[in-house]
Amino acid sequence: MKYDINALLEKYRACANDMTEEFRQFFRAFDYQNNDYKKIKITKIESLQSLDSVLSGAGFYLIASTMPTPNNGCRLQIGSSRVIYRGHSSNVRERLESHLFYGSYTTKNAGRKFTVCMKLNGKNVNLDECSKIDDDWYVVTHSMPKSMKLIREAAEAAFDAEFGKPVCSTK
């Protein structure tokens, strides 16, 4: 008995495309301004402790800010904050800490898995190093328990297709 890699790749692509289309339909219908869906939470980030209430499991997430970000292709706003990054992780809270509080994250987790993180103006973001956070920052988490990477990547592809790719999402 033999297996056909090309046939398996075609099945994989078809599956990923089906999931992406399902997420696109969700994003078309979902209203972030009137969110009453329990699996999606919007949290204002005012300090590192703000992340304590953020999803720690698997999911898809958005980072939004009022900070000016020229060339942002994403059209989605959360209140007056525009989405500047979208991503996914098996541990959303830890991933968000690595993006928004990079110095604290790397000090606490020396040698840990997240070394490539969101950058603004070519630099890692360290909101905890600001004496006062001048811009508004929000994270939106979509809880996806038991999800596999393939499913969360389909959410990313669908988000980009519906809203445009956020400026800091380089992949």
What structural class is derived from the secondary structure elements?
alpha+beta
Oligomer: single chain
Task: Based on Cα principal axes, name the global outline.
Answer: globular
Radius of gyration over C-alpha positions, nearest whole angstrom: 17 Å
The main β sheet shows up as: 5 strands, antiparallel
Number of DSSP strands?
A: 7
User: In order across it, which strands form the biggest sheet?
Assistant: 1-7-2-4-3
Uncertain spans: none
Strand content: 15-25%
Order of helices and strands: HEEEEHHEEEH
Q: Mean pLDDT, rounded to whole units?
A: 91
Distance between the termini: 38 Å
Summarize the amount of helix as a percent range: 25-40%
* Count of separate structural domains: 1
Number of helices: 4
Summarize the structure.
The chain is of the alpha+beta class and 171 residues long.
Key traits:
single chain; 171 residues; five-stranded antiparallel β-sheet; two-stranded antiparallel sheet; 4 helices; 33% helix; globular
What does it look like?
By secondary structure, the chain is α+β, with helices and mostly antiparallel strands. Helix content is 33%, strand content 20%. The mean pLDDT is 91.
Topology:
Layout: H1 5-29, E1 40-44, E2 59-65, E3 77-78, E4 81-89, H2 92-100, H3 102-108, E5 119-120, E6 123-124, E7 137-143, H4 149-163
Antiparallel strand pairs: 1-7, 2-4, 2-7, 3-4, 5-6
Helix pairs in contact: 1-4, 2-3
